[in-house]
User: Which sequence fits this backbone?
């Protein structure tokens, strides 16, 4: 990265930002957004990171959950299916573990899942199923989206129609290489007691590296229940 | 009354003092450990209150033990204490009432430290809930102390326990303006705001045909922490949108007609 203003080309979607020294602080700016960072410019430049991340932080983080809506999928009794869902990506500008900025490629909206008292605020995500005709995931992406492998298993004796899944980003990791960004594998179990979403600490794609710098991740419970239905 | 110092067992007195001191520190320590352990399983305020109760129980047991060491008969003291307690109880009914209400509040748990609440007309953030009182920091700064008996009897609105809140406006537009157009513009403006929830979705409709204006009611849900900001921002944006589109917003007007036949004195 050069001194002053430059084009960040980590991802194909380009956005320009600048760093300049102001009264002993370094000022990061992009569009109308300005953030002051303590430190000298050279040090900031070497510690500045631009990372793809899951779509949750725009316009600001008010929830850890997102609800992915995707085309209706029918799962017969006892059936199982793996689908690959394409989701919009956000880009995070991070300095020494502190998020300075988020850049999104999707206009955000929020909804309430469940009742007003005790329900969950969720960021709405429009997902698109990108599984090819032979059931394989897409080989390359455009750098503006990520792929989420979702394994759905119906343990009940009834047919179920699914068009949404509730995800807690705090239990997720992202994997990245070149243009390909993927979440870890997610299991959606339909049981007589309810719908459970589990997060598996592995990727479905070979050769991807786990993203670093995601300090807010908690990898303990790794389970979300969809208490208020599909 | 003269006290014969030679009859006092100074060893026992020393032991009692030592037990009192050690007992005090042990009570404090146990109370803190309990608070930390309980805080993992219940809200901070409840953990604090329960640890205080544990502390007072330990102090009470320690006092009884110290009195026994000093050679006083605890059973007779308890009887005397009961009588004295009743007398004190009658004299300090409000204090006792506050304490008991504090216990009931702990059981009922209508709020926790850090919650935004309205207690009988006093609004603010809960700073502390002690066995006797609840302290609020009101929105404009001052700290309000409310006795627990009053808290328990009052209507408590807890804003923290809801994740989303509904905003409602009543707008008045002129009979000359198109209500369909106004409603469409308002819906579009709401759709542009990320913090207006899509589910439950917004509701915009004509609610009243008034004397001089058509009333339009706007209802939408927003994340509770964003309620104030979104409410003020959206009202301004809706007003600007309607004004820009030429939708007329009337204000109360009175026409006064003077008769031509006004006679002078």
Assistant:
């Amino acid at each position: 990265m050069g001194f002053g203003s430059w084009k960040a080309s980590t991802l194909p979607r380009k956005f320009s930002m600048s760093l300049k020294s102001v009264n002993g602080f370094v000022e990061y700016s992009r569009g109308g957004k300005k953030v002051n960072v303590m430190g000298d410019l050279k040090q900031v430049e070497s510690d500045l990171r631009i990372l793809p991340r899951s779509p949750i932080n725009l316009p600001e983080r008010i929830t850890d959950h997102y609800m992915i809506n995707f085309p209706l999928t029918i799962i017969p009794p006892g059936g199982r299916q793996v689908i690959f869902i394409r989701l919009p990506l956000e880009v995070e500008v991070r300095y020494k573990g502190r998020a300075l900025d988020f850049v999104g490629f999707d206009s955000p909206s929020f909804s309430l899942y469940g009742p007003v008292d005790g329900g969950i605020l969720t960021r709405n995500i429009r997902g698109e199923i990108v599984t090819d005709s032979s059931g394989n995931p897409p080989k390359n992406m455009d750098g503006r989206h990520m792929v989420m492998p979702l394994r759905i298993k119906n343990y009940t004796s009834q047919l179920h129609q699914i068009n949404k899944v509730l995800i807690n980003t705090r239990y997720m990791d992202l994997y990245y290489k070149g243009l390909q960004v993927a979440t870890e594998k997610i299991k959606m179990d339909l049981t007589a007691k309810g719908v459970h979403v589990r997060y598996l600490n592995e990727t479905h794609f070979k050769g991807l590296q786990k993203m670093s710098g995601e300090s807010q991740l908690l990898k303990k419970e790794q389970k979300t229940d969809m208490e208020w239905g599909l | 009354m003269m006290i014969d110092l030679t009859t006092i067992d100074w060893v026992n007195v020393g032991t009692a003092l030592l037990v009192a001191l050690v007992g005090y520190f042990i009570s404090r320590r146990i109370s803190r450990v309990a608070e930390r352990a309980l805080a993992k399983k219940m809200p901070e305020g409840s953990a604090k209150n329960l640890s205080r109760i544990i502390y007072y129980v330990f102090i009470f047991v320690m006092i009884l033990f110290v009195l026994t060491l000093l050679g006083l008969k605890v059973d007779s003291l308890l009887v005397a204490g009961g009588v004295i307690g009743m007398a004190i109880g009658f004299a300090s009914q409000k204090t006792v009432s506050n304490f008991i209400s504090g216990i009931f509040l702990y059981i009922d748990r209508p709020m926790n430290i850090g919650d935004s609440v309205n207690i009988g007309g006093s609004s603010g953030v809960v700073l502390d809930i002690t066995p006797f009182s609840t302290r609020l920091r009101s929105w404009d700064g001052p700290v309000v102390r409310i006795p627990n008996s009053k808290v328990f009897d009052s209507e408590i609105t807890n804003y923290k326990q809801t994740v989303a809140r509904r905003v409602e406006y009543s707008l008045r537009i002129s009979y000359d303006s198109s209500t369909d157009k106004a409603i469409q513009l308002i819906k579009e403006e709401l759709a542009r705001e990320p913090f207006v929830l899509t589910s439950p979705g917004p509701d915009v409709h004509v609610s009243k045909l008034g004397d001089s204006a058509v009333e339009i009611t706007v209802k939408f849900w927003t994340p509770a922490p964003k309620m104030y900001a979104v409410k003020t921002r959206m009202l301004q944006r809706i007003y600007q949108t309607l004004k820009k589109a030429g939708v007329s917003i009337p204000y109360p007007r009175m026409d006064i007609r003077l008769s031509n036949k006004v006679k002078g004195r």
User: Anything to note?
Assistant: Confidence is low (pLDDT under 50) at residues 1-11 of chain A. The two ends of chain A are 46 Å apart (CA to CA). The longest helix of chain A spans residues 41-47.
